[in-house]
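Sanity check. The docking grid for nicotinamide-adenine-dinucleotide depends on where the pocket ends up, so I'm generating a full predicted complex first rather than guessing from homology. Inputs follow.
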Amino acid sequence: MRLNIDELALFKRSLRYVHDVVPHPAGDRLQACLDAQRLALVERGALSPERRDEALGALADSIVRHTDDFVTAVAADFGHRSAHETRLADLYPVVASLRHARRHFRKWMKPRRRPIQWMFKPGTGRILYQPLGVVGIVSPWNYPVQLTLSPLTGALAAGNRVMIKPSELTPRTSALLEQVITEVFDPTEVAVLQGGPDVAKAFSHLTFDHLLFTGSTHVGRQVMQAAAENLVPVTLELGGKSPALIAGDYPVEKAAERIAVGKLFNAGQTCIAPDYVLVPRRSEEAFVSAYRKAVSSLYPTLADNPDYTAIIDERHLERLRHLIADAREHGACVHEINPGEEYLNPALRKIAPVVMTGVPEHAQVLQQEIFGPLLPVVAYDDVEQACRFIGARPHPLALYLFSHEGQAIDHVLARTSSGGVAINDTLLHCVQEELPFGGIGASGMGAYHGEAGFRTFSHARSVFHQARFNGAGMTKPPYGSRMNRMLSMLLR
Ligand code: NAD
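Predicted complex below; grid placement will be based on this.
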């Protein structure tokens, strides 16, 4: 059945009506949106290359135009968020990835010819990269713009229609995202659906063609279960404990500075923040003192420091305080680094950076993802022991290795597993458009960014094209001696 354009318009009106006027249960509102996008897909197909080009450009321009609004909204949601970090980590990567995708998506979408085995020649083979259909995106609060719009970039470049469920913990940013999306897209192309965990849960039960979830491993499990009911394929961008490993040959002062930068960006609320650090036992004290020095120089004050971000909410602040108390109870030595003030006003929700030594493995801070400015130091005697420590835990999202020795680097890379790696720095592998970004095992599955995002949201459709004159007649029943001769040749 072909639906005409009036019926589509009716659906769109009903979607707006459902969205704006009727207090529907969460599931109905979401289903109405999905139905409207599916109908548009049937009626008008996927986004044409011209529309993708226009949309990627318009979205980038709109974000640039709204830079100050985003900085203000994110800061209000966090209580305080460094304006530089919002521009650097939430806005710049999105604008860069939109422009990168716009420049390259026509090349990515080109069909690829594939060789055909000799006995099927002169038939030909090729792969077509086609949009999946309607994609769902669920995003977290820690980089609320980047982690919503970067997946959207890949999905749009591949020509999909998209429904987005942003985080309820950043309501002002989510509202602004909805405003920007509405300025650029018709809701049958891209729609933002706001709501808390109930809406998120209903969202993850929808029959999308693909669902990309960014968030905690705990919720990721539930999302995968919900998606499995409908056989919806998932990309899971989850969390975990990303180690930093300082090899014996690397100067600890230099490593401490890069680890402090990566750890304290967004006050540690970064999925790929170095979670804990493995340090040669003989350098443990030197590392603690270098880390203190680095932190004090990066953040000479905390409470009034515009560069130092607050913790997102009271629950997370309490969780971090509990991790510190639990480590102390387990006998760890806890060094608070609070150079400017003796006391941080709790209303600010800022927590001073902490470095810990002598932390037993069963302390919570070495069990849970920290997601805050606390850094446990784990001393090791040889690199094998450090690799075993990493290998005995769920696969992390990132691994940071500090060494100048090629052999040592190759050895650690071969002996460990992680979603991504940065060598002699932290965080920066994540902003390389040409490197796929994703986890492994407990830190996630699938990847996106740049071409990897395009591939994630495309169906690689195999096409075998039989030639007009071909040898297909040779391989059909009744099988006889000719077939026997051919098979004995093939199975030689
Ligand atoms: P979260 O899992 O609590 O929430 C993420 C999103 O899931 C939110 O939009 C929320 O509304 C939704 N949600 C909540 N319950 C749900 C349910 N039952 N079904 C479906 N969706 C549900 O995560 P968070 O606290 O927002 O973010 C922090 C976590 O995300 C950390 O673990 C961090 O490591 C991880 N993270 C991972 C990446 C990555 O790229 N791998 C990036 C940022 C954050």
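Relevant for the grid: Residues 138-142, 147, 165, 167-168, 197, 200-201, 204, 214-216, 219, 222-223, 237-239, 271, 369, 371, 397, 439, 444 surround nicotinamide-adenine-dinucleotide (CB under 6 Å).
Also worth noting: The domain at 5-238+447-460 is CATH 3.40.605.10 (Aldehyde Dehydrogenase; Chain A, domain 1).
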